[in-house]
Amino acid sequence: MSKSRYRVVIAKPGLDGHDRGAKVIARALRDAGMEVIYTGLRQTPEQIAAAALQEDADVIGLSILSGAHNSICPRLMGLLREKGLQDVLVILGGIIPDADLPGLKAMGVAAVFRPGTRMQEIIDFITSSLEAKASGLSSR
Amino acid sequence: MRQFAGFGTPEDTNRRYRELLTAGATGLSVAFDLPTLMGRDPDHPLSLGEVGKCGVNVTSLADMEMLFDGIAVGDITTSMTINSPAPMIFAMYLVVAEKQGADWQTISGTIQNDILKEFIAQKEYIYPPRPSMRLVTDIFAFCEAHVPRWNTISVSGYHIREAGASALQELAFTLRDGVEYVQAGVEAGLDVDRFVPRMSFFFNAHSDFFEELAKYRAARSLWARVMRERFGAKDERSWKLRFHSQTAGVSLTAQQPMNNVIRTALQALSAVLGGTNSLHTNSLDEALALPTAEAATLALRTQQILAYETGVTGSIDPFAGSYFVERLTRDLEQGSEEYFATIDKMGGMVAAIERGYPQREIAESAYRFQQDVERGRQVIVGVNDFVTDDAASVPILQIEEEAGRRQLDNIGRLRRTRHNVAVSRALAKLKKAATTNDNTMPALLDAVRAYATVGEMCDTLREVWGEYQEQAVI
Question: What CATH architecture is A7-134?
Answer without folding.
Answer: 3-Layer(aba) Sandwich (3.40)
